[in-house]
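Worked problem 6 (solution included).
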Amino acid sequence: MKLEILKLSLVFLLFALIGASCQDEEELPPLKDKQLTVSEIKSQGCKDHLKSTDTERYIELKAEGENQLRVKFINATLNCAGLDTTYAMINDGILRVTFIDYEWANCICNFDLECVIDSMEQRKYTSKVSASGEVTTFTFHYSKNLDSTIEISPN
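Solution. The predicted structure is:
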C-alpha cells in the first residue's frame, strides 16, 4: 500500500513539474513609449564595388554590458553621402531603430551600419529597423546571451 502511494505521489509530482515548465513566461507589462539612448554610431564605407546580386543583407543583434544591444545592419542601402544620424525609440510597443542618411546625394550604395542602444529589458521585442525608408520587421527576445542574425530577403 505504501509503495502504491509513493508511486502515485511521484506521478502527480511529475505532472506538476511538466505543467509548470509548459507555462508561458511571466506576462510583462507593455512597453511604454520613450526615446532610447543611442551610442557608438558607425558607418563603414560606400560599397559601390558590389553588384546588387552579390549583396547579402542582414541584421546582427548582440547583447553587451548590463542592458545594451548592439545592432549592425549589413549592406543597408543609403545614398552615397552616407549616414547622418541614428535614433531608437519605443513607440506603440515596438522597438524602432532608424538609420537616417543625408538628405540629398546623386547616387546610392551599400553601407554597414552599427549602433548601441541602452536601457534594454530582458523580454520579447517586436522591432522595426529601417534605413532609407526600407523597414525590416522581426521579433527577438533580449537577454544577456543574445547573439542573433536576422536575414533580410532580397527586394
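Discussion: Residues 50 and 110 are 8 Å apart (CA to CA).
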